[in-house]
Amino acid sequence: MGILDGVRVLDFGRFIAGPFCATLLGDLGADVIRIEKTTGGEDRFLSPVADDGTGATHLNLGRNKRGMAFDPRRPGGEHILTRLVATADVVVANLPRRGLAAMGVDYESLSSIKPDIILTSVDAYGDTGPYADRVGFDGVGQAMAANAWLTGPEGFPTRSYTPYVDFGTASLAAYATIAALWHRERTGEGQHVSAALLHTALQFNSFTMTEQAVLGKDRVSTWNRGQTSGPTDIFEARDGWLVVQVVGGPLFGRIARLMGRPDWLEDPRFATDDGRGEYGAELSEVIGAWVAERTVERAIAEFNGAGVPSAPVLDAQGALDDRHVKESGLFTPLPYPGARVPPPIVAPPIGLSATPAELRHRAPMLGEHTDEILRELGFSTDEIDAFRADGVV
User: Fold this and answer.
1) What confidence category does residue 99 fall into, taking pLDDT thresholds of 50, 70 and 90?
2) What is the per-residue burial (b if ≥16 Cβ within 10 Å, else e) of 27-42?
3) Which residue, of 81, 162, 197, 228, has the fewest CB within 10 Å?
4) pLDDT for the residue 95
Protein backbone atom coordinates (compact mmCIF):
# COMPACT_ATOMS: atom_id res chain seq x y z
CA MET A 1 0.00 0.00 0.00
CA GLY A 2 1.44 3.38 -1.01
CA ILE A 3 1.51 6.41 1.23
CA LEU A 4 -1.10 8.11 -1.01
CA ASP A 5 -3.46 5.14 -1.05
CA GLY A 6 -7.01 6.51 -0.92
CA VAL A 7 -6.12 9.78 -2.64
CA ARG A 8 -7.84 10.30 -6.01
CA VAL A 9 -6.12 12.42 -8.67
CA LEU A 10 -7.72 13.60 -11.90
CA ASP A 11 -5.01 14.04 -14.52
CA PHE A 12 -6.02 16.55 -17.19
CA GLY A 13 -2.35 17.12 -18.02
CA ARG A 14 -0.87 17.29 -21.48
CA PHE A 15 2.55 16.24 -22.76
CA ILE A 16 4.99 16.01 -19.81
CA ALA A 17 4.84 18.53 -16.96
CA GLY A 18 1.27 17.84 -15.86
CA PRO A 19 1.15 14.11 -16.57
CA PHE A 20 4.48 13.37 -14.86
CA CYS A 21 3.34 15.24 -11.75
CA ALA A 22 0.34 12.89 -11.63
CA THR A 23 2.58 9.91 -12.41
CA LEU A 24 4.71 10.62 -9.35
CA LEU A 25 1.57 10.75 -7.20
CA GLY A 26 0.42 7.48 -8.74
CA ASP A 27 3.76 5.85 -7.98
CA LEU A 28 3.08 6.64 -4.31
CA GLY A 29 -0.27 4.87 -4.39
CA ALA A 30 -2.79 7.51 -5.51
CA ASP A 31 -5.69 6.44 -7.73
CA VAL A 32 -4.86 8.52 -10.80
CA ILE A 33 -7.45 8.83 -13.54
CA ARG A 34 -5.90 9.96 -16.81
CA ILE A 35 -8.53 11.98 -18.71
CA GLU A 36 -8.14 12.40 -22.46
CA LYS A 37 -10.16 13.56 -25.42
CA THR A 38 -12.23 10.82 -27.03
CA THR A 39 -9.77 10.84 -29.93
CA GLY A 40 -6.80 10.65 -27.55
CA GLY A 41 -4.48 13.31 -26.21
CA GLU A 42 -1.68 14.50 -28.47
CA ASP A 43 0.93 13.23 -26.05
CA ARG A 44 -0.43 9.68 -26.32
CA PHE A 45 0.94 9.39 -29.83
CA LEU A 46 4.47 10.79 -29.38
CA SER A 47 7.15 8.25 -30.46
CA PRO A 48 4.64 5.52 -31.38
CA VAL A 49 5.64 1.98 -30.42
CA ALA A 50 2.32 0.07 -30.39
CA ASP A 51 -0.15 -0.92 -33.10
CA ASP A 52 -2.76 1.59 -31.89
CA GLY A 53 -0.26 4.45 -32.23
CA THR A 54 0.42 4.73 -28.51
CA GLY A 55 3.89 6.13 -27.95
CA ALA A 56 6.77 5.79 -25.55
CA THR A 57 5.86 9.03 -23.78
CA HIS A 58 2.43 7.77 -22.74
CA LEU A 59 3.71 4.32 -21.79
CA ASN A 60 6.06 5.92 -19.27
CA LEU A 61 3.90 8.78 -18.01
CA GLY A 62 0.71 6.71 -18.01
CA ARG A 63 2.01 4.04 -15.64
CA ASN A 64 -0.09 3.41 -12.54
CA LYS A 65 -3.06 5.29 -14.04
CA ARG A 66 -6.53 4.36 -15.17
CA GLY A 67 -7.68 5.77 -18.49
CA MET A 68 -10.89 7.70 -19.17
CA ALA A 69 -11.87 9.41 -22.39
CA PHE A 70 -14.57 12.09 -22.32
CA ASP A 71 -15.17 15.68 -23.38
CA PRO A 72 -16.36 17.89 -20.51
CA ARG A 73 -17.28 20.64 -22.97
CA ARG A 74 -19.88 18.60 -24.86
CA PRO A 75 -23.50 18.76 -23.64
CA GLY A 76 -23.75 16.26 -20.80
CA GLY A 77 -20.05 16.23 -20.15
CA GLU A 78 -20.44 18.69 -17.29
CA HIS A 79 -22.43 16.08 -15.35
CA ILE A 80 -19.53 13.63 -15.54
CA LEU A 81 -17.03 16.32 -14.59
CA THR A 82 -19.08 17.39 -11.58
CA ARG A 83 -19.34 13.86 -10.23
CA LEU A 84 -15.67 13.19 -10.88
CA VAL A 85 -14.52 16.31 -9.08
CA ALA A 86 -16.80 15.54 -6.14
CA THR A 87 -14.87 12.27 -5.62
CA ALA A 88 -11.41 13.74 -6.17
CA ASP A 89 -8.73 15.09 -3.88
CA VAL A 90 -6.42 16.60 -6.51
CA VAL A 91 -6.89 17.88 -10.05
CA VAL A 92 -3.77 18.24 -12.20
CA ALA A 93 -3.86 20.36 -15.34
CA ASN A 94 -1.24 22.16 -17.37
CA LEU A 95 -3.02 24.95 -19.18
CA PRO A 96 -2.87 28.75 -19.07
CA ARG A 97 -5.52 30.49 -16.96
CA ARG A 98 -7.98 30.91 -19.82
CA GLY A 99 -7.67 27.25 -20.74
CA LEU A 100 -8.43 26.14 -17.20
CA ALA A 101 -11.59 28.24 -17.16
CA ALA A 102 -12.69 26.99 -20.58
CA MET A 103 -12.35 23.39 -19.37
CA GLY A 104 -14.17 24.15 -16.13
CA VAL A 105 -11.16 23.10 -14.08
CA ASP A 106 -10.12 26.50 -12.75
CA TYR A 107 -9.89 26.69 -8.96
CA GLU A 108 -13.09 28.71 -8.52
CA SER A 109 -15.14 26.19 -10.50
CA LEU A 110 -13.57 23.16 -8.80
CA SER A 111 -13.90 24.50 -5.26
CA SER A 112 -17.55 25.31 -5.85
CA ILE A 113 -18.05 21.57 -6.37
CA LYS A 114 -15.66 20.37 -3.64
CA PRO A 115 -14.45 23.09 -1.25
CA ASP A 116 -11.34 21.19 -0.08
CA ILE A 117 -10.13 20.31 -3.60
CA ILE A 118 -6.49 20.85 -4.51
CA LEU A 119 -5.83 22.16 -8.02
CA THR A 120 -2.28 21.71 -9.26
CA SER A 121 -1.76 23.73 -12.41
CA VAL A 122 1.34 24.01 -14.55
CA ASP A 123 1.92 26.53 -17.33
CA ALA A 124 4.81 28.08 -19.20
CA TYR A 125 5.23 31.52 -17.62
CA GLY A 126 3.27 31.59 -14.35
CA ASP A 127 0.08 33.30 -13.25
CA THR A 128 1.41 36.88 -13.32
CA GLY A 129 3.34 39.07 -15.71
CA PRO A 130 2.87 40.07 -19.34
CA TYR A 131 3.45 36.54 -20.68
CA ALA A 132 0.99 34.80 -18.35
CA ASP A 133 -1.45 33.84 -21.12
CA ARG A 134 1.17 32.61 -23.57
CA VAL A 135 1.58 28.92 -24.25
CA GLY A 136 4.95 27.23 -24.25
CA PHE A 137 6.94 24.04 -23.91
CA ASP A 138 10.16 22.95 -22.22
CA GLY A 139 12.29 24.84 -24.74
CA VAL A 140 10.82 28.14 -23.54
CA GLY A 141 12.39 27.64 -20.13
CA GLN A 142 15.69 26.44 -21.54
CA ALA A 143 15.94 29.43 -23.84
CA MET A 144 14.86 32.14 -21.39
CA ALA A 145 16.94 30.92 -18.44
CA ALA A 146 20.24 31.01 -20.40
CA ASN A 147 20.61 27.24 -20.60
CA ALA A 148 20.50 27.16 -24.39
CA TRP A 149 22.94 30.09 -24.51
CA LEU A 150 25.45 28.21 -22.36
CA THR A 151 25.02 24.82 -24.06
CA GLY A 152 26.61 23.61 -27.29
CA PRO A 153 29.45 25.16 -29.33
CA GLU A 154 30.07 28.84 -28.74
CA GLY A 155 27.83 30.89 -30.99
CA PHE A 156 25.34 28.07 -31.53
CA PRO A 157 22.77 28.08 -28.71
CA THR A 158 21.70 24.48 -28.15
CA ARG A 159 18.60 23.03 -26.55
CA SER A 160 19.02 19.99 -24.32
CA TYR A 161 17.47 16.93 -25.97
CA THR A 162 16.07 15.75 -22.64
CA PRO A 163 13.17 18.01 -21.55
CA TYR A 164 14.60 18.59 -18.09
CA VAL A 165 12.49 21.72 -17.49
CA ASP A 166 9.28 19.71 -17.99
CA PHE A 167 10.38 16.90 -15.70
CA GLY A 168 11.78 19.32 -13.11
CA THR A 169 8.56 21.35 -13.05
CA ALA A 170 6.50 18.18 -12.68
CA SER A 171 8.66 17.02 -9.78
CA LEU A 172 8.34 20.36 -7.99
CA ALA A 173 4.59 20.37 -8.62
CA ALA A 174 4.25 16.88 -7.12
CA TYR A 175 6.30 17.94 -4.09
CA ALA A 176 4.06 20.99 -3.60
CA THR A 177 0.91 18.89 -4.09
CA ILE A 178 1.95 16.54 -1.29
CA ALA A 179 2.57 19.61 0.90
CA ALA A 180 -0.95 20.82 0.04
CA LEU A 181 -2.40 17.41 0.96
CA TRP A 182 -0.59 17.59 4.29
CA HIS A 183 -1.96 21.12 4.84
CA ARG A 184 -5.46 19.86 4.09
CA GLU A 185 -4.98 16.98 6.51
CA ARG A 186 -4.15 19.49 9.24
CA THR A 187 -6.66 22.23 8.42
CA GLY A 188 -9.33 20.83 6.09
CA GLU A 189 -8.48 23.51 3.52
CA GLY A 190 -7.86 22.97 -0.15
CA GLN A 191 -5.74 25.31 -2.25
CA HIS A 192 -4.36 26.12 -5.69
CA VAL A 193 -0.83 24.81 -6.28
CA SER A 194 0.90 26.42 -9.25
CA ALA A 195 4.17 25.77 -11.06
CA ALA A 196 5.70 27.20 -14.22
CA LEU A 197 8.35 26.09 -16.68
CA LEU A 198 10.18 29.43 -16.66
CA HIS A 199 10.26 29.53 -12.86
CA THR A 200 11.79 26.04 -12.75
CA ALA A 201 14.39 26.82 -15.39
CA LEU A 202 15.45 30.00 -13.59
CA GLN A 203 15.69 28.10 -10.31
CA PHE A 204 17.86 25.40 -11.86
CA ASN A 205 20.18 28.03 -13.35
CA SER A 206 19.90 30.49 -10.46
CA PHE A 207 23.59 30.49 -9.58
CA THR A 208 24.37 31.80 -13.07
CA MET A 209 21.83 34.60 -12.66
CA THR A 210 23.20 35.58 -9.27
CA GLU A 211 26.77 35.61 -10.56
CA GLN A 212 25.78 37.70 -13.57
CA ALA A 213 23.93 40.26 -11.48
CA VAL A 214 26.81 40.66 -9.02
CA LEU A 215 29.89 40.26 -11.23
CA GLY A 216 28.69 40.71 -14.81
CA LYS A 217 30.64 37.66 -16.04
CA ASP A 218 28.79 37.48 -19.38
CA ARG A 219 29.54 33.80 -19.73
CA VAL A 220 29.40 32.10 -23.12
CA SER A 221 29.34 28.39 -23.90
CA THR A 222 32.47 26.27 -23.60
CA TRP A 223 30.61 23.25 -24.94
CA ASN A 224 31.26 20.26 -22.66
CA ARG A 225 33.95 21.89 -20.58
CA GLY A 226 32.93 23.09 -17.13
CA GLN A 227 33.31 26.76 -16.25
CA THR A 228 32.85 27.06 -12.49
CA SER A 229 35.16 24.17 -11.56
CA GLY A 230 37.36 21.69 -13.31
CA PRO A 231 38.59 19.76 -15.02
CA THR A 232 35.17 18.77 -16.30
CA ASP A 233 34.77 17.69 -19.91
CA ILE A 234 33.82 14.90 -22.31
CA PHE A 235 36.80 13.11 -23.82
CA GLU A 236 37.24 10.73 -26.75
CA ALA A 237 38.92 7.41 -26.02
CA ARG A 238 40.07 4.81 -28.55
CA ASP A 239 36.64 3.18 -28.71
CA GLY A 240 34.15 5.77 -27.48
CA TRP A 241 33.58 8.72 -25.20
CA LEU A 242 33.57 9.34 -21.46
CA VAL A 243 32.86 12.18 -19.07
CA VAL A 244 35.08 13.34 -16.22
CA GLN A 245 33.82 15.77 -13.60
CA VAL A 246 36.05 17.24 -10.91
CA VAL A 247 34.82 19.70 -8.28
CA GLY A 248 36.85 20.79 -5.26
CA GLY A 249 40.49 20.71 -4.23
CA PRO A 250 40.69 17.08 -3.00
CA LEU A 251 39.38 15.68 -6.30
CA PHE A 252 41.69 17.99 -8.25
CA GLY A 253 44.62 16.61 -6.27
CA ARG A 254 43.64 13.08 -7.23
CA ILE A 255 43.47 13.77 -10.96
CA ALA A 256 46.70 15.78 -10.87
CA ARG A 257 48.49 12.81 -9.34
CA LEU A 258 46.87 10.39 -11.82
CA MET A 259 48.02 12.56 -14.73
CA GLY A 260 51.53 12.79 -13.26
CA ARG A 261 51.22 16.56 -12.99
CA PRO A 262 52.14 17.61 -9.44
CA ASP A 263 52.96 21.04 -10.90
CA TRP A 264 49.22 21.66 -11.28
CA LEU A 265 48.96 21.74 -7.49
CA GLU A 266 51.53 24.56 -7.34
CA ASP A 267 50.08 26.58 -10.21
CA PRO A 268 48.19 29.62 -8.82
CA ARG A 269 45.79 29.52 -11.78
CA PHE A 270 44.47 26.18 -10.53
CA ALA A 271 44.31 27.05 -6.84
CA THR A 272 40.50 27.46 -6.78
CA ASP A 273 37.48 25.93 -8.47
CA ASP A 274 36.88 29.22 -10.27
CA GLY A 275 40.43 29.26 -11.61
CA ARG A 276 40.29 25.63 -12.69
CA GLY A 277 37.12 26.46 -14.59
CA GLU A 278 38.59 29.58 -16.18
CA TYR A 279 41.78 27.84 -17.29
CA GLY A 280 40.18 24.46 -17.85
CA ALA A 281 41.09 24.28 -21.54
CA GLU A 282 44.72 23.57 -20.62
CA LEU A 283 43.67 20.85 -18.18
CA SER A 284 41.33 19.28 -20.75
CA GLU A 285 44.09 19.19 -23.35
CA VAL A 286 46.34 17.10 -21.11
CA ILE A 287 43.55 14.79 -19.96
CA GLY A 288 42.23 14.42 -23.50
CA ALA A 289 45.62 13.20 -24.73
CA TRP A 290 45.82 10.75 -21.81
CA VAL A 291 42.31 9.38 -22.49
CA ALA A 292 42.94 9.09 -26.24
CA GLU A 293 45.60 6.43 -25.59
CA ARG A 294 43.15 4.20 -23.71
CA THR A 295 39.89 2.38 -24.20
CA VAL A 296 36.82 3.70 -22.39
CA GLU A 297 36.87 0.73 -20.02
CA ARG A 298 40.53 1.14 -19.12
CA ALA A 299 40.33 4.91 -18.67
CA ILE A 300 37.29 4.64 -16.41
CA ALA A 301 38.94 1.91 -14.38
CA GLU A 302 41.96 4.16 -13.79
CA PHE A 303 39.82 7.20 -12.99
CA ASN A 304 37.70 5.21 -10.56
CA GLY A 305 40.77 3.63 -9.04
CA ALA A 306 42.04 7.13 -8.29
CA GLY A 307 38.64 8.21 -6.90
CA VAL A 308 37.88 10.55 -9.81
CA PRO A 309 34.22 10.62 -11.01
CA SER A 310 33.89 9.36 -14.57
CA ALA A 311 31.41 7.43 -16.70
CA PRO A 312 30.94 6.29 -20.29
CA VAL A 313 28.90 8.40 -22.67
CA LEU A 314 26.17 5.95 -23.71
CA ASP A 315 23.59 5.96 -26.46
CA ALA A 316 20.07 4.74 -25.68
CA GLN A 317 20.87 1.06 -26.33
CA GLY A 318 24.01 1.37 -24.28
CA ALA A 319 22.01 2.70 -21.35
CA LEU A 320 19.55 -0.22 -21.63
CA ASP A 321 22.42 -2.72 -21.80
CA ASP A 322 24.56 -1.22 -19.04
CA ARG A 323 25.41 -3.80 -16.38
CA HIS A 324 24.61 -1.51 -13.46
CA VAL A 325 21.26 -0.47 -14.96
CA LYS A 326 20.32 -4.11 -15.55
CA GLU A 327 21.45 -5.51 -12.21
CA SER A 328 19.82 -2.64 -10.30
CA GLY A 329 16.47 -3.38 -11.96
CA LEU A 330 16.00 0.19 -13.12
CA PHE A 331 13.65 -0.89 -15.93
CA THR A 332 10.61 -3.15 -15.71
CA PRO A 333 9.05 -4.69 -18.84
CA LEU A 334 5.29 -3.95 -18.82
CA PRO A 335 3.46 -5.67 -21.71
CA TYR A 336 1.18 -3.35 -23.69
CA PRO A 337 -1.33 -4.59 -26.31
CA GLY A 338 0.10 -4.23 -29.78
CA ALA A 339 3.69 -3.54 -28.75
CA ARG A 340 6.25 -5.82 -30.44
CA VAL A 341 8.06 -6.44 -27.15
CA PRO A 342 7.08 -5.59 -23.56
CA PRO A 343 8.12 -1.92 -23.30
CA PRO A 344 10.70 -1.34 -20.55
CA ILE A 345 9.41 1.28 -18.12
CA VAL A 346 11.81 3.04 -15.77
CA ALA A 347 11.23 2.36 -12.10
CA PRO A 348 10.02 5.21 -9.84
CA PRO A 349 13.16 7.31 -9.25
CA ILE A 350 12.85 7.51 -5.45
CA GLY A 351 13.21 5.05 -2.59
CA LEU A 352 11.05 4.83 0.54
CA SER A 353 11.90 1.98 2.89
CA ALA A 354 8.48 1.73 4.56
CA THR A 355 6.12 2.88 1.79
CA PRO A 356 7.96 2.28 -1.49
CA ALA A 357 6.88 3.80 -4.78
CA GLU A 358 5.89 0.98 -7.11
CA LEU A 359 5.10 0.09 -10.70
CA ARG A 360 1.67 -1.47 -10.22
CA HIS A 361 0.36 -1.62 -13.78
CA ARG A 362 0.94 -0.48 -17.35
CA ALA A 363 -0.36 2.70 -18.95
CA PRO A 364 -4.02 2.51 -20.00
CA MET A 365 -5.28 2.17 -23.54
CA LEU A 366 -7.43 5.06 -24.75
CA GLY A 367 -10.58 5.16 -22.61
CA GLU A 368 -9.81 1.71 -21.21
CA HIS A 369 -11.50 2.34 -17.86
CA THR A 370 -14.18 4.83 -18.91
CA ASP A 371 -17.16 2.57 -18.27
CA GLU A 372 -15.67 1.27 -15.02
CA ILE A 373 -15.19 4.80 -13.67
CA LEU A 374 -18.61 5.98 -14.82
CA ARG A 375 -20.23 3.07 -12.99
CA GLU A 376 -18.21 4.00 -9.88
CA LEU A 377 -19.72 7.49 -10.19
CA GLY A 378 -23.23 6.03 -10.15
CA PHE A 379 -24.15 6.31 -13.83
CA SER A 380 -26.38 3.54 -15.18
CA THR A 381 -25.71 1.46 -18.26
CA ASP A 382 -28.39 3.39 -20.17
CA GLU A 383 -26.79 6.71 -19.17
CA ILE A 384 -23.37 5.49 -20.25
CA ASP A 385 -24.78 4.33 -23.59
CA ALA A 386 -26.37 7.76 -24.04
CA PHE A 387 -23.09 9.52 -23.29
CA ARG A 388 -21.40 7.37 -25.92
CA ALA A 389 -24.14 8.01 -28.51
CA ASP A 390 -23.78 11.75 -27.93
CA GLY A 391 -19.99 11.65 -28.30
CA VAL A 392 -19.40 12.68 -24.70
CA VAL A 393 -17.32 9.53 -24.04
Assistant:
1) confident
2) bbbbbbbbbbeeebbe
3) 162
4) 79
Going by pLDDT thresholds of 50, 70 and 90, the confidence category of residue 100 is: confident
Residue 18 near residue 11 (C-beta atoms within 8 A): yes
10 Å CB burial of residue 101 (0-12, 13-18, 19+) is middle
- State the Cα–Cα distance between residues 195 and 202, nearest whole angstrom: 12
Beta partners for 121? Answer: 93, 194
Q: 206-213: which pairs have CB atoms within 8 A and are 24 or more residues apart?
A: 208/146, 208/150, 209/145, 209/146
Residues near 246 by Cβ (< 8 Å), separated by ≥ 6?
Answer: 229, 230, 231, 232, 252, 255, 276, 308, 309
CA 389 to CA 111: how far, in whole Å? 30
β-sheet bridge partners, residue 273: none
Question: Measured between alpha carbons, how far is residue 44 from residues 122, 199, 365 in Å?
Answer: 19, 26, 9
Query: How far is 51 from 47, CA to CA, in rounded Å?
Result: 12
Residue partners of 272: CB distance under 8 A and separation at least 6: none
Q: Where are the alpha helices (DSSP H) in the chain?
A: 17-27, 56-61, 77-87, 97-103, 107-113, 138-144, 164-187, 197-204, 206-215, 249-258, 273-278, 280-292, 296-305, 316-321, 323-327, 370-376, 381-389
Q: If we measure between CA atoms, which residue out of 108, 146, 139, 107 comes closest to residue 124?
A: 139
From CA 197, how far away is CA 268, in angstroms rounded?
41
Q: How far is CA 276 from the centre of its chain?
A: 32
Q: Measured over all CA atoms, what is the biggest interatomic distance in the chain, rounded to whole angstroms?
A: 84
Query: Among 62, 65, 29, which residue's Cα sits nearest to residue 358?
Result: 29
Spatial contact of 35 and 12, defined as CB atoms under 8 Å apart? yes
The residue among 119, 72, 49 whose CA lies nearest residue 362 is 49
- The β-bridge partners of 120 are 92, 193
Q: Is 113 exposed, middle or buried (0-12, 13-18, 19+ CB in 10 A)?
A: middle
Task: With both helix axes pointing from N to C terminus, report the angle between 249-258 and 296-305 in degrees, rounded to the nearest 10.
Answer: 130
